Amino acid sequence: MKPHLAPVEVPDPAALGLVQRLCDLAEPYADGPVADELFAAAMGQTNAWHARRSPFFAALLQDPAETPAPTVGEGVRTPLVPAAFFKRHEVLSVPREEVFLHLTSSGTTGQKSQMFFDEWTIRSAQRMVARIFDHYGWITPEQPVNYLLYSYEPAPSLKLGTSFTDNYLCDFAPARHTTHALRHTGSGHEFDVHGCIAALRRYAEDDVPVRILGFPAFLYFTLERMRAMGLPPLTLPEGSLVVLGGGWKGHADRQIGKEAFYAEVTERLGVPGDRVRDTFGSVEHCVPYIECAHHRLHVPVWSRAAVRDTGTLRPLSYGERGFLHLVSPYITSVPAHSVVMGDLASLHPGDACPCPLPTDWFTVHGRAGVSRNRSCAVAAAELMKGMS
């Protein structure tokens, strides 16, 4: 068995056995009544787990159940917790000594989500990522690659979720060489655009694939600078892969559409469009959402998604825009198994995508409103000021 797919065990097999069964499902996009029934039962166990350990969550369960039932499943209790709640409150469902990993959601200033993970929670989330990468054939232990990471270079005190995720993704193929776009200076990070360009030119002459991971805006600024410098397009080696995440926060005025952006990546770097994928995720909800070859964010078997009206929070129908509501029973450390994100999204049925994946998918349309809260991408975007 590939090491990233090795079994992990819930904290209490008697109380969380159905959560274990759900997270052990090997096919990341399985669907149907059996999967739905298991998901609902696992949510019931996770609700009970947090209610016994978190007075905050127990109080939420005292509220009347939603009528009609929420779109995440008939009879499934999903009290709504805004992701922003975790920017102001630390709420644990495990003893602090059982915290295995502490990650934050934002940059060097501003409000930060403080998320705490026991070993089961973070390992099960990592295994979800591994199962999706394995589904697409992206775990290649025999094939070394060169990495260009559009994320923060690790530093001793760095606890950002994006940095943790991008460095974990490097475990799926051995590294011949790694370049970080955001270089640690000792007092912060700086965007090294010329270092990125030099790495791409060097990697294009190598004989191993390239994997580009991280914030899409940084990659776009790199390609823009290459064009401005009059550099010819590159052809990265066959098998190269681009997996992006984090959005364009802070540079919405310079954001281009996905189709145009992906076409630019193909034109400037020679990476086919089906090898360029965006992702969605957050430190408050670590379940991975990775685009299919047709660039749809399909919902994996370990989670469910709904969209809620921005005024009433009632569940909306397919195609309507509202707050993205994400649900998964995997997390035992913090009652963050039913989180309303600050993102506007629309949900769509699986058969509305040409790919063979059967599960629902969603489109993110941007952040809702104007907030003083900052994400990793916002902080990172500020490092690009002066590049225009």
Automatic annotation (TrEMBL):
It comes from the Bacteria. The keyword Metal-binding does not apply. Signal peptide: none annotated. GO terms for biological process: bioluminescence. Keywords: Ligase. The keyword DNA-binding does not apply. GO terms for molecular function: long-chain fatty acid--protein ligase activity. Pfam families: LuxE. Residues 77-381 form the Acyl-protein synthetase LuxE domain. This is Long-chain-fatty-acid--CoA ligase. It comes from Streptomyces filipinensis.
